[in-house]
Protein: Nucleotide-binding protein C1H66_09470
Amino acid sequence: MPSFDIVSEFDKHEASNAVDQANREIQTRFDFKGVTASFELNGETASLEAEVDFQLKQMLEVLRNKLIARGIDARCMDIKDPVLSGVRARQEVVLKQGLDQKEAKEIVKRIKDSKLKVQAQIQGEKVRVTGKKRDDLQAVMALLKGEGGPDLPLQFDNFRD
Structure:
């Protein structure tokens, strides 16, 4: 029986490259001359550090653009509130990977509500969809990519016939 997996992942190496590019752009931008500002990537968390709050907003936009340019969907960014302390401002951006239980249940419910002849089951951080016809599986893909779909970057992996 044909099947595929629904996952939410990104290439960590591309994320690292995007953060490096953002650092280089901040160092060469005119509006950041003489300002101590930097990006740092620790695992799946990018730390933005600058002198004032409005610079963090500009840095966040630079990071978003660099991630998109490297093929990483900006919807995977979980932006935390900025922390202001004296002469420094810090902000954390968590790059979310994988589907948590709530999101996976939402996807399964949406598939079941569509009345397509497929089965969806949660397997850890992914959802496996199986059906008798390839057309039904492609209809599920179109359903999840379409309007009203989850606000997550979804990829469809492991398509088997």
Remarks:
- Residues 6 and 127 are 5 Å apart (CA to CA).
- The chain has two domains: 3-8+99-160, 12-95.
